[in-house]
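Feature request, filed as a ticket because there's no other form

It would be nice if the structure record came with a short human-readable summary line next to the tokens. Right now we just get the raw output. Example of a typical job, pasted below so the devs can see what we mean:
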Amino acid sequence: MSHRHDHPHNHADSPLSATALRVRALESLLFEKGYVDPAALDALIETYEHEIGPKNGARVVAKAWVDADFHKWLLEDATAAIASLGYTGRQGEHITAVENTAATHNLVVCTLCSCYPWSILGLPPVWYKAPPYRARAVIDPRGVLTEFGLELPAVTAIRVWDSTAEMRYLVVPMRPAASEGMGEAQLAALVTRDSMIGTGLALTPAEAREAGLLP
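Raw output as currently delivered:
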């Protein structure tokens, strides 16, 4: 069984861009002047990256797993279906949902920058914005997934979707086995951020219980 996880990956220690250096300098100045509390800023970023955003997406996926009509709507018009749950806003205006199957696994990348559906996934993880991921996800997606601990069968095709300012993507992971009879709230606990990008799979109920996500 492949190891499934939902945390950042540092594939390379790449140098900071000029923009990133300016941001660092501005942050340092604000910290020194006492205008920004570093701990509060870190807590805010952590919340949006790992809690608020991904939980929205998890609710979308869980509903698609149990509601056939919503599932069909999500695949036909993800933007409208997602908006019906109240998840709209910046970088969530145009979204396409792509569904994983036994035959095809979907992987999302943004080769030009870091376009990402903030309204349902929160802030993009550091590795998603890193040049190594952006380049290698297209050239060697299977190798990249292996680095994330995801070993797919050789017969499973991998389709890479390149996000742009005009269109962002949500991967609908396959529903795990042994999740029959679970309600939406319980199912949402199985959906990780990485599974909605394509670098991971949804957790099994046993894995979710081991992680303390289910009783």
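Something like this underneath would help us a lot:
The chain has one domain: 18-210.
The radius of gyration is 18 Å.
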